[in-house]
Specification:
Layout lengths: L3 E6 L2 E9 L5 E3 L4 H5 L20 E4 L4 E4 L2 E2 H7 L2 H10 L5 H13 L6 H7 L7 H15 L10 H27 L12 H10 L10 H14 L6 H11 L4 H13 L6 H14 L4 H9 L20 H17 L4 H14 L2 H5 L6 H11 L7 H22 L26
Antiparallel strand pairs: 1-2, 2-3, 4-5, 5-6
Helix pairs in contact: 2-9, 3-18, 4-7, 6-7, 6-11, 7-8, 7-18, 8-9, 9-14, 9-17, 9-18, 10-11, 10-18, 11-18, 12-15, 12-17, 14-17
The chain binds carboxymethyl coenzyme *A.
Amino acid sequence: MSEKAKVIVDGKEFELPVITGTENEKAIDIGKLRAESGGVITLDYGFKNTGSTTSSITFLDGEKGILRYRGYPIEQLAEKSEFLEVAYLLIYGDLPDKETYEKFKREISDSYFVHEDIKKIMDGFPSNAHPMGVLSSVATSLTAFYPASLDPNRSPEGVNLSIKRILAKMPTFAAWTYRRKLGRPIIYPDTAMDYCSNFLNMMFKMPGGRYEVDPVVANALDKLLILHADHEQNCSTSTVRITGSSRGSLYTSISAGINALWGPLHGGANMAVIEMLENIRMDGGDTKKWMDKAKDKDDPFRLMGFGHRVYKNFDPRARIIKKAADEVLEALGVQDPVLDIAKGLEEVALSDDYFVERKLYPNVDFYSGIIYRAMQIPVDMFTVIFALGRLPGWIAQWKEMRENGEPIGRPRQIYVGHTNRTYQPINER
Ligand code: CMC
């Protein structure tokens, strides 16, 4: 017999189905509660206990520190796979065989180039514009270059074309944003280069000059992108799904996701971490003083890169990244004083009652910024790199939502404002 949950409201009992996932996660399906109870809904600020969908893309157990894409542990993918292979896995459900993967990579590299008019759009932004704002605008602008992408009933082949185009062109947009900001001439994509090498080449090569992509840097970037590739129903991904649920196109939904990712409590945290570590360093490196600030409820300061909505023991991505940070800095011969400050903060926090009681651990963003710095990626590009990594996840989640035929996302509310009152003319107020 299938499991049921009982809810009693105003003395009336309602039986609700319990849904169980393949990893035995349970949810009470409240789909009929409002209709049957004559108006009762559930309230859950920040959706801390609310599932918005069923999904077969990513499994995450925050208590046990487990993260799997399509069933594959993140540790195995980070060690053995490549970013584009992981992208294929997330979007299409299985790892590609050799032939399929080679074809997929070729199709992506053939689409690296962007319409020349995109440069004019970028030229319209002030040179000090934040790269995330430029990136989201340029992502939306793809609807103008490929108007067929707006059709909500697009064929699967048409959807695949949109998917490959945005996967291929995002690194070009990202690198050009950076070049424009520095006033440097843009570097065109090189279709003979792999995804990460091509991106690094467009970021750092000078016209006429020589730039050899360091394989240590390209591999580290590839690993970082894999670690960011999906994270189930987080803030930006939920934004992508909800935007797409109005039959919004892939490009507009991704653009919405980029904006949601930008904030400092989400993808913007990687920038905020480095700024915080730099401030601590310039302030003399007294980690205890800053820990006290983070614990002080009258002080708005939070220890950036610490805490997570779902990980309450450790963030498996942070473990991999911490090790990678040591390896990359050693391989590149970089000594970064903020790495020592980060390790010092982590050590103090892990034994501090405030952080232990609230289960606050370093998250993916705590060490990623240190690697980006070692790669000479400027701070305001950190969140852009996160967006590049998260792109396959957004695409996979948008595609799943459309294929499931999910209804438009439209939460309800409990109104707590004025009850009915009568309009007063302005001179009588
Ligand atoms: N520093 C100090 N106190 C904290 C921190 C922190 N970084 N994070 C949470 N707390 C405290 C918070 O004040 C609250 O205390 P109390 O129960 O006494 O009121 C308690 O811990 C629970 O915090 P919350 O804000 O209710 O938890 P949340 O699940 O709503 O927020 C979070 C999760 C990630 C937004 C939050 O931990 C935070 O702001 N962290 C810093 C920003 C950050 O690193 N974000 C990146 C997240 S990982 C990348 C991604 O996936 O987006």
